[in-house]
Description:
Oligomer: single chain
CATH class: Alpha Beta
Low-confidence stretches: 276-285
Strand order of the largest sheet: 1-10-9-6-7
Radius of gyration: 19 Å
Amino acid sequence: MSDWRTIKASVRGAAHVRAGLPNQDAVRVTRCNDDLWLLAALADGHGSAKSFRSQRGARLAVVVAQQVCGHLFKLDGPTQIKRWAEERLPQELVRRWRERVDKSLKIKPFTPEELSPLDAASRRQIETNPYLAYGSTLLTVIVAPAFILYLQLGDGDILTVSAQGDIKRPIPVDTRLIGNETTSLCSAKAWNDLRVRFQTLAGSPPALILAATDGYANAYRDEAGFQQVARDLWALLRDEGDAAVKPHLKNWLNEASQQGSGDDISVGIIWRPVHSPATISIFMPTLIN
């Protein structure tokens, strides 16, 4: 796994800055299993009035993703890992997240100050489902020597880039997610909405994997513009290495938020040096604005 490298960044959205709201995303990129595996986990707290602790919920989500990674490498080989990931991981991940939310609530119950802005119907929803206050999405990518595991619950994007600059989505866009509607860890049966893709590393693995909360793609006019960002990141990393991206990534994300979505943006990049020609155009395609 020494060939794979990582970069991460998270910025507070321009709209959140204007409204005095915090960054409600969370991102964790780390090595595990004696540095043999890489994990990138990103979560986007909902930030709605009813999800008033979603910043905390997002942070708990990425911690739980790392815990699950720790369990996976105890299993016996890719076949068993694939079976467990597809059959049991969704329930296990949601269960662990809810356990951490329960612990958080026991230590710090909801306060009158948190509940007073809500109308009666919203308060009843929180009473029925306290996890709603912590609502968050979750994206996770685990890269191991023999496989890549992709997990997605809710909105956000995972793109892979080949050495030739070809883009793929290992997990297709969920057509149920329209506008600001998203599936979530706080949903009643969230495990049914968590999508899993297990990819064996046979042949040519991706050169770059980009995971991003939805504020990044939403900053661009269309899918083609967002995909071009992934290609251009790959071109810079391939030709010039980390130094061409890592010091500048936060500024690029701030620009995307300010000129585009206004939302928090978090990014996790896993890439490997590959010397291969690719056709790359301008780095920053047209934003929404």
